[in-house]
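hiii so my PI (J.) wants the whole complex modelled not just the main chain, which honestly fair. so below is everything: two entries, each one labled with what it is. i double checked the lines twice but i was tired so who knows lol
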Amino acid sequence: NFVLTQPHSVSESPGKTVTISCTRNGDSIASKYVQWYQQRPGSAPITVIYEHNQRPSGVPDRFSGSIDSSSNSAFLTISGLKTEDEADYYCQSYESNNHGVFGGGTKLTVL
Amino acid sequence: QVQLAESGGGLVQPGGSLRLSCVASGFTFSDYYMTWVRQVPGKGLEWVSYISDGSDYTNYLDSVRGRFITSRDNAKNSLYLQMDSLRVEDTAVYYCARAGRFPSSSLLYWGQGTLVTVSS
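here's the output for the full assembly
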């Protein structure tokens, strides 16, 4: 089994840029696609990035995803922060046996 | 547009059973893998299981294997989760999500969830 490790919380000011990391232990981060989900309080998750860096229709281009093999990590970057971006963000990928795994989640505060 | 609607949650005693349903609309249900994800209130997301488009393949979280069964009825655009021998630690909001056309695909669409409470 592998683990996806995210920072517990991050905070930044409106208009700034924030990057959330998701580090995979074990297999290469590139071995299975990484997704990012946004969850506001009391709501279901929505997908903001899929397949490492693809953005679903309707998600602003302020959201971008990337991976870095040297750190075995995936990154979610949100630029031009808005108060509405305040939410929990989860990275997600799969094991070699196709079991899904979620990171522990990062609480983004926009203050 | 894609819509997923879960139902069937509720209060059940430890050792009991419950069957969740998820009705899909807005896409060709039989073309996609479907997934169940759960979330203990106030905690993170946990992947539970998936089922292939034609029901040929299923996969389960280790802690639910042998107790939960995922099935689907493509004629009814419906996904099911039969949960037996329920434990207190199964208490969570259960979401259905549409995956892609292969096992390790992204969960692009999610339902609103249904709450399962296991308590005596």
